[in-house]
Amino acid sequence: MSELLSNIAECIEFGKINKVAPFPPQMKGQDGADELTRQALDEGISAQRILTEGLMVGMEKVGIKFRENKVFVPQVLMSAKAMSTAMIHLKPFFLSGEVKEKGTFIIGTVEGDLHDIGKNLVSMMVEGNGWKVVDLGTDVKAEQFVSAIKEHQNAFVGLSALLTTTMVSMEKITKAIKEAIPEAKVAVGGAPVTDDFRKKIGADVYSPDPQGLVEYLNAQVA
Amino acid sequence: MGKILDKIKLGKVLVSDGAWGTFLQQKGLKTGECPEEWNITHPDEVLDIARSYIEAGADMVETNSFGGTRFKLEKYGLEDKVFELNKAAAEISRKAAGDKFVLGSVGPTGKILMMGDVTEEELFEAFKEQAKGLESGGADAIMIETMSDLDEARIAIQAAKQHTRLEVFCTMTFEKTVTGEFRSMMGVSPTEMVQTLVGAGAELIGANCGNGMVGMVAIVEEIRKANAEIPILVHANAGMPVYSDGETVFPEKPDEMATLVPKIIKAGANVIGGCCGTTPEHICKVRDAIDKS
């Protein structure tokens, strides 16, 4: 039974979606996250265990490898795809309340910036670690962030930017959020962002990679 | 007027231009505004940028068309104006360039092929449409740049090669990994880039953006090692941006950039210019350094 869970973790780590998926080549023809998750449920393994001992283990491994530059964006995207395929089988258990999310994470690319690759990557990694993610999209204004935080009590919020020029929006939005909801925790990230910048604008956390954010979030609810 | 490659074959090191995006903002482009739309709404400002690089001594100037594919323009509801905006971009730079060269800038679409965001055919059509607009406005070459995905770069090169008569160039953007190698966001190394881009028909390759000229020296060395012949271009950022008092500042000064010119030529570069944060002053100093070397 635990072998099945470790096989699921492996499918997530290497981005094996299902049996017919050609990627990764070394797992060709083998069952993927899709088949193995179904099988685990059929064998009576709880959805919670599949999530925490299978899927999340794989997601953490890929997150760490990404941070260490051992894998790059394509591998993470494939892992995320494998993850979301497996999650379809677990969805009913989330809806029934049998499996609970760790919390809610609101994310968006800041006003003036239309780039979404980094934002989506973070979104998938956080979701793959057992969080509910509310994705506000790109070019998101301060008011939209504020009203989303009001709607989802105790949610954490993440601001993404790719352009150096939209770092200004990041400062504006962080200040607006802190003014409206002083206890809200704001994370910032993206190519031009540094921890020094985070301090200057009064945000709570910065990570150069998605895994760092996941670890921060997990620590907040541990 | 000879072609760019002919000049490089004569053994000349050429100077390209500096930043466009950061320059447009100085001129009043607001966040959330479409830069390419300025080719129609603010042609004089765009012309002024192109002209300032030619006056600084550049042998070639780019066009204000980096986000000129339909996939970028559709975010502003301008996807039906691809040809028009790109043609205008090339016309403006052509006017500024005189007998110097015009590089028609083509940036990534922001769509990821392997995620199924788009098909190869859709990408090909989008690049073809943009390249044709740039050609009709008078560009001498298509400058595909800031690429991180090899397939997208290859498709852009093929579309430009098959549907224009222009020289086709391509640069990718690399960052240093924790282990000290250079890789693009999608994990492509400079060495891996060489074969695919040259194989697709790129006549000049290289690197742009990044964290400054120092990193570029190592990247050019790696490309040159992988291919002894292919002309190499660099468009380097003026360092990694630093945020202070509500604005971003690029730390690498014109003189600092210019002192690295002999090194980057020695590494194998044939065309040297700037990317984000570089100004006409940077280009002027690079010109001086090349003329002295």
UniProtKB/TrEMBL annotation, chain A:
<dbReference type="GO" id="GO:0046653">
    <property type="term" value="P:tetrahydrofolate metabolic process"/>
</dbReference>
<dbReference type="Pfam" id="PF02607">
    <property type="entry name" value="B12-binding_2"/>
</dbReference>
<dbReference type="InterPro" id="IPR036724">
    <property type="entry name" value="Cobalamin-bd_sf"/>
</dbReference>
<keyword id="KW-0170">Cobalt</keyword>
<protein>
    <submittedName>
        <fullName>Cobalamin-binding protein</fullName>
    </submittedName>
</protein>
<dbReference type="GO" id="GO:0005829">
    <property type="term" value="C:cytosol"/>
</dbReference>
<dbReference type="InterPro" id="IPR036594">
    <property type="entry name" value="Meth_synthase_dom"/>
</dbReference>
<dbReference type="Pfam" id="PF02310">
    <property type="entry name" value="B12-binding"/>
</dbReference>
<dbReference type="InterPro" id="IPR006158">
    <property type="entry name" value="Cobalamin-bd"/>
</dbReference>
<feature type="domain" description="B12-binding">
    <location>
        <begin position="102"/>
        <end position="222"/>
    </location>
</feature>
<dbReference type="InterPro" id="IPR003759">
    <property type="entry name" value="Cbl-bd_cap"/>
</dbReference>
<dbReference type="GO" id="GO:0046872">
    <property type="term" value="F:metal ion binding"/>
</dbReference>
<keyword id="KW-0479">Metal-binding</keyword>
<dbReference type="GO" id="GO:0050667">
    <property type="term" value="P:homocysteine metabolic process"/>
</dbReference>
<dbReference type="InterPro" id="IPR050554">
    <property type="entry name" value="Met_Synthase/Corrinoid"/>
</dbReference>
<dbReference type="GO" id="GO:0008705">
    <property type="term" value="F:methionine synthase activity"/>
</dbReference>
<feature type="domain" description="B12-binding N-terminal">
    <location>
        <begin position="31"/>
        <end position="102"/>
    </location>
</feature>
<dbReference type="GO" id="GO:0031419">
    <property type="term" value="F:cobalamin binding"/>
</dbReference>
UniProtKB/TrEMBL annotation, chain B:
<dbReference type="GO" id="GO:0046653">
    <property type="term" value="P:tetrahydrofolate metabolic process"/>
</dbReference>
<keyword id="KW-0949">S-adenosyl-L-methionine</keyword>
<keyword id="KW-0170">Cobalt</keyword>
<dbReference type="GO" id="GO:0050667">
    <property type="term" value="P:homocysteine metabolic process"/>
</dbReference>
<keyword id="KW-0479">Metal-binding</keyword>
<comment type="similarity">
    <text>Belongs to the vitamin-B12 dependent methionine synthase family.</text>
</comment>
<dbReference type="GO" id="GO:0008270">
    <property type="term" value="F:zinc ion binding"/>
</dbReference>
<feature type="binding site">
    <location>
        <position position="275"/>
    </location>
    <ligand>
        <name>Zn(2+)</name>
    </ligand>
</feature>
<feature type="binding site">
    <location>
        <position position="276"/>
    </location>
    <ligand>
        <name>Zn(2+)</name>
    </ligand>
</feature>
<keyword id="KW-0489">Methyltransferase</keyword>
<dbReference type="GO" id="GO:0005829">
    <property type="term" value="C:cytosol"/>
</dbReference>
<dbReference type="InterPro" id="IPR050554">
    <property type="entry name" value="Met_Synthase/Corrinoid"/>
</dbReference>
<feature type="domain" description="Hcy-binding">
    <location>
        <begin position="2"/>
        <end position="290"/>
    </location>
</feature>
<protein>
    <submittedName>
        <fullName>Methionine synthase</fullName>
    </submittedName>
</protein>
<dbReference type="InterPro" id="IPR017226">
    <property type="entry name" value="BHMT-like"/>
</dbReference>
<feature type="binding site">
    <location>
        <position position="209"/>
    </location>
    <ligand>
        <name>Zn(2+)</name>
    </ligand>
</feature>
<dbReference type="GO" id="GO:0032259">
    <property type="term" value="P:methylation"/>
</dbReference>
<keyword id="KW-0862">Zinc</keyword>
<keyword id="KW-0808">Transferase</keyword>
<dbReference type="InterPro" id="IPR003726">
    <property type="entry name" value="HCY_dom"/>
</dbReference>
<dbReference type="GO" id="GO:0008705">
    <property type="term" value="F:methionine synthase activity"/>
</dbReference>
<dbReference type="InterPro" id="IPR036589">
    <property type="entry name" value="HCY_dom_sf"/>
</dbReference>
